Amino acid sequence: MAGPLKGIRIVEMGGIGPAPFAAMMLADHGAEVIRVEKAGMIGFENDPLRRSRRSISLNLKRPEACEIVRRLATDADGLIEGYRPGVMERLGLGPDELLRANPKLVYGRVTGWGQDGPLAQDAGHDINYIALSGLLHGIGPKDRPISPINYLGDYAGGAMMLAFGMVSALFAVRAGGSGQVIDGAMSEGAALIGAMTFGLLAGGHWKDKREANLLDGGAPNYGIYRCSDGKFVAIGAIEPQFQQALAKGLALSPGASRDEIAAVIKTRTRDQWAAHFAGTDACVTPVLELEEAPLHPHNIARRTFIDLDGVFQPAPAPRYSSTVLARPDPPRLEGEDAEAILGELGYSGEDIARMRGEGAVI
């Protein structure tokens, strides 16, 4: 792999949720990531969250399978896992044991509630974590909150925070520091994303209710409007000069109400409005469907999306001025690289055949 993380080796304990996304990001930027699959965990073929990693499938109920993970961790810069607190310890793969064998190891953990606290062992999903952070309360129309898919907790508050923590801790090791454990909680990461809103609230510039603020649909010049074809445009004209451009394009006076803007927007299709406002500073964009986004001229020009084996998916981001990122590889078959990985760890062909026969290697 090419990229700024070239030379870094990460062990990923296979699962669902934020850990695979974090592993994808690290691999996108050049790290060598070995994914330790749990049999049956793959949800669908060509899942973008599994791209650019080698795969070995192990039955962690077998002691020899856990020993393979120990060997992998001894030769790695980092390990990431997203299991409930205590699961890795019960397997004999907790941070205390692995850091004794490899004091430079960065051990990344991501859970919903964190490794300790009253809720640490409770089940939950994205919607639960952002509910506790306070963010969910502000998302949606006046009458009720709505779930913003699983972007805020799983991927922004969990995966991206874990990836950032891994890179930060790896940098500290390269600077002479010791390995350490990263305790990533999706509920805390989501709360951190709301730092600006909490600041505005404290300063008296944010109302703690929905559709009552500039950025939550409370202002007519910042919101989503339905067009004549049933599709939508997004308007984000915050600054005065952008509001003036919007008003001019709609043939309305500055300060027009939401109802006035809605009535005008309803007279044309989404794509007609996109063409009408093209090249202006009115901050009007079409709300694209998922299948449309890869075909937009800007996304084509920027190569925002790539096609891997027929699956359109987001390309690695961000870009670097000097470092070239390699094109991601399609996901490997579950356990496809077992022989190669085990051979690198010193296992013989006879050892591998025996462990396959005993069910340690799947």
Number of strands: 11
The end-to-end distance, rounded to whole angstroms, is 26 Å
Radius of gyration, in angstroms, nearest whole number? 24 Å
Largest sheet: 6 strands, parallel
- Mean pLDDT figure: 95
Topology pattern, helix = H, strand = E: EHEEHEHHEHHEHHEEHHHEHEEHH
Q: What general form does the structure show? A: elongated
Could you estimate the helical fraction of the residues in percent?
Answer: 25-40%
Strand fraction band? 5-15%
Instruction: Specify the number of helices.
Output: 14
Structural class by helix and strand composition: alpha/beta
In order across it, which strands form the biggest sheet? Answer: 3-2-1-4-5-6
Poorly predicted regions:
none
Structure characterization notes:
This protein has about 350 residues and is α/β, with parallel strands linked by helices. The chain is built from 14 helices and eleven strands. The chain has a six-stranded parallel sheet with strand order 3-2-1-4-5-6, sandwiched between helices. A three-stranded antiparallel sheet has the order 7-8-9, with helices on one face. The protein is elongated.
Quick tags:
three-stranded antiparallel beta sheet, single chain, 14 helices, six-stranded parallel beta sheet, alpha/beta, 362 residues
List the helices and strands and how they pair.
Blueprint (H helix, E strand, L loop, with lengths): L8 E5 L4 H11 L3 E7 L15 E5 L4 H12 L3 E4 L5 H4 L4 H7 L4 E6 L14 H8 L17 H24 L5 E6 H8 L1 H8 L19 E5 L5 E5 L3 H11 L7 H8 L4 H8 L6 E3 L10 H6 L2 E4 L2 E4 L23 H7 L4 H10 L4
Parallel strand pairs: 1-2, 1-4, 2-3, 4-5, 5-6
Antiparallel strand pairs: 7-8, 8-9, 10-11
Helix pairs in contact: 1-6, 5-6, 5-7, 6-7
